[in-house]
Design brief:
mainly alpha; 2 domains; two-stranded antiparallel sheet; 4 strands; globular; cell membrane; XK-rel; transmembrane helix; membrane; transmembrane
Length: 395
Amino acid sequence: MPVPVANGNEWVPGTIAIKEDGGVAGEQLDRIPRHLFVRRFDLFCFCFAMVTYCFDIISDVITAAFHYYDDRAVACLFILLLSVVPSVVLNAVSFAWICDDNYSKAKAVKSRGNQPNGEDERESYFNHALLCIFQIGPLWWYYKALVHGIHFRMESDPIKRRKHFCRMIEAERDATLLRFFEGFLESAPQLIIQGNILSEYLWWHFNEANSIFELPRWVYVQLISMALSLLSVCWSISIQHRSLRMVRPDKVNMHPHESVLQLIWRFSTVASRFIVIVLSVSSYEFKVVPPLVLHFLVSMAHIKALQALNIPSRGLEEGLTLINAAIHTFTPFNMADGPTRWRYAAAYTVEAIEAILFFTFWMRDNSIQFPYKKEAAVLSGVLFVIGTYLSMIHI
């Protein structure tokens, strides 16, 4: 993985590496701030990320178990598939990155004329393989970031502090990318599937019992699971901003209250968007596909117009544009440098128009006998207003 360079008392933008175990890693990294610091809140964020990652997966498995024991095999199967398949993919990627790191270290040792310890190397591969087999490989990167962050705060020697800072942001970047993948490969689809299952059951329950009480236990378990999935999606986006601000000299590291406000912003807007998507899917099923395709095309046009990446590889730029347009199905996400206010304003305007059109048509459709229509529309609208207001303050 890329590593920045220390030169005297300053970090040199865009050049190469620092010493690790006596070797030199000659790779580039984004520019690093001249003044390095790690807050206690940064360490707390690493711990919080590990805890929420575990709870998100565990809650999905428990929810699937409740569905299985209540003879809802199809619901159990869908929830398990969306938990297991992304987890296997993420752990495979994590193990590949670990192998790449180990290979780079062994290569550095050989370049100095030393012979790497084969037994230690095999033990390292075995231990990391076990982590990935037990589906906790991504936590390794958070653990590395946490350890180097603690060492940075405890160390007094400037050279060693820089080394630990580099290792911390390197591990955090990998952890952040894995968490981002997890958010949109696992948590976002889980929200739609579990939300659809829950809305259909509540639809039937409210029409039969006309009460929000006397719900079975699995409903409360699934609500907790959905809340954790929603938190995971929002956290995966928020920490992208934190990671960039921590390593960019032209940015200021986010203060704790800014991180909290950004998380509330994302939580509110994403929750509002998922209410619209889940209600539209549960009400109209496959008829929602054309509007979603139209949203994807509009998002692509918006990204090309306002978020041009201007990178040498045309294929890579087109690929990233497609990925970002898919992410825009759930929430706006900015990948390009430069002012972001108008980019988010344009994306949220599209979401607002879609929500207004949906709720107007949905509430007038007498064939949809969903109870609490007004309450659902008001909740979605209030969340959206809160989130977009905070986004305009934060950006």
